[in-house]
Amino acid sequence: MNSILNYAKKEATPSKKLQQKKQRVAKKACDLVSQCIEKHAQVVGFELGGSYAKGTWLPEKADIDIFVKFNKKTSEKDFRNIGTKIGFQSLKKHKPYTRHAEHPFVEAVIDGTRVNIVPCYDVSKGEWQSATDRSIYHTKFMSQKLSNSLKGEVRILKKFFLHIDVYGAEIAKEGFSGYVSEVLISYFGSFEKTIKKISELKKGQVIGKSTKKFDSPVVIIDPVDNNRNLGTAISMDNLGKFVLASRAFLKKPSKKFFKKPISKRIMKNNDKIVVVQFR
């Protein structure tokens, strides 16, 4: 198995050339944002976030996320409007467009890399005013928690998710986000230990610690906010695919689990057995 995991890690690690390219894009985007926020008194600063900032990004999945921090007394109207305005002003030379989550944010492509300008409130931990407020704390937590070795394990898990077609937290996907990948590795310690735990998963099992009760097929506690269940966003179907793929890999490890997504070739008749495979 070690040779296969070493292969997976190599495939999941960006080349030095690509890392240098992303560094240039990140610097360029940060410089653009820095120039724009000076005009707005409600903004207290900005920070890089997401997998790029944490060093867990994949060669084929490397967005640059910049979180613009607003004074916590800023009205929701100004938060939305000024946040969007900063995004468009910063990225005006790169054909920016609006995307929507709980609040709108602005995205554009710079030198082949997607750049997201996302507003958040500058609040103390636990005093969340918007869904994006936790993101900066996620970055800080994982930057401290993940060693270079563990970052490699996260990349292997993300590659695995990509292959079995369950990677992504978008509403349409209902899969495993990059942050969930990091959380699982931080809880279990390696890719191999993670899939061993998942292969034995029981319905409603809790991963992490919380005094709050949750009702979802799997409960994954956010280490930054133990009242938040990251498992809520994951569909039963995608969870089932992860369980089955974990069992299949452990039974017969292969490099094919880390190549292009071809989940149907690995797990034939998967949709017939996903729901009944929990122990």
Automatic annotation (TrEMBL):
Transmembrane segments: none annotated. InterPro entries: CCA-adding_arc, CCA_tRNA_nucleotrans_2, NT_2-5OAS_ClassI-CCAase, NT_sf, Polymerase_NTP_transf_dom, tRNA_NucTransf2. One of its GO terms (molecular function) is RNA binding. Keywords: ATP-binding, Magnesium, Metal-binding, Nucleotide-binding, Nucleotidyltransferase, RNA repair, RNA-binding, Transferase, tRNA processing. GO terms for biological process: RNA repair; tRNA 3'-terminal CCA addition. Residues 153-259 form the tRNA nucleotidyltransferase substrate binding domain. SUPFAM superfamilies: Nucleotidyltransferase (SSF81301), PAP/OAS1 substrate-binding domain (SSF81631). It holds the Pfam family tRNA_NucTransf2. The keyword Metal-binding applies. The keyword Cell division does not apply. Residues 36-132 form the Polymerase nucleotidyl transferase domain. This is CCA tRNA nucleotidyltransferase. It comes from marine metagenome.
